Amino acid sequence: DTAVSQTPKYLVTQMGNDKSIKCEQNLGHDTMYWYKQDSKKFLKIMFSYNNKELIINETVPNRFSPKSPDKAHLNLHINSLELGDSAVYFCASSQTWDISYEQYFGPGTRLTVT
Amino acid sequence: AQTVTQSQPEMSVQEAETVTLSCTYDTSESDYYLFWYKQPPSRQMILVIRQEAYKQQNATENRFSVNFQKAAKSFSLKISDSQLGDAAMYFCAYPLRGNKLVFGAGTILRVKS
Fold first, then answer.
1. Residues 6 or more apart from B26 whose CB is under 8 A from it?
2. What is the DSSP track for B62-81?
């Protein structure tokens, strides 16, 4: 069983489109995250939810909107896609949002905007 | 501001030998955690090892161990008996409040047979 899954794994789309990436974890964790890995492999957090409540919202364009329908799911919706949004997006989860808990990552979604 | 620095963009090691990857960080906290994550070509992020700053003893997980120097704010990863499957990008990470991970820029490890 996959602990943290993301769909789709690859997403190719044109500028201006709207797309969503879905994430699910079956670990019973309370906290979920979205990270972005750019073309230079640099990883940066975007959002974090704890029990469906937003707790971290980094400086991210408001074209990006996370949604957590329940604590096992955290989806990322992106409006009006731009070339600079091309990246790998990782979902992760942890038991709680305490710093002692390791994060488990999904396989990543490679988004290519043309 | 907390920062994590990995000064080695790329390292190479011969199979069966030992390699050390460097990481330094900046923090004003006295108790904190540090992590090393591995990202192989499959791009899956995998936890390698974690260290609690409160503990003096260096963490060890099989062939992976750390050299944690709290005063120097240094957290290096030692890989012993390197294997081809160790080839990957390695990230040092420091969790801020809310478990927000701050990552270093990563070190690509190449393993030669």
1. B1, B2, B3, B4, B73
2. TTEEEEEETTTTEEEEEE-S
Number of other CB atoms surrounding residue A36 within 10 Å: 20
Return the amino acid letter for B41: P
Closest Cα partner for A95 from A104, A83, A84?
A104
pLDDT single digits (tens) B48-79: 999 999 988 999 999 999 999 999 999 999 99
Query: What pLDDT does B1 receive?
Result: 61
Considering only CB atoms, B99 lies closest to which of A94, A105, A107, namely A94
Q: Is B9 left (phi over 0), alpha (psi -120 to 50) or beta?
A: alpha
Q: In this structure, are strands A64-70 and A73-78 parallel, antiparallel, or unpaired? A: antiparallel
> Smallest Cβ distance to B98: which of A40, A41, A48?
A48
Give chain A positions within 8 Å (CB) of B51.
Answer: none
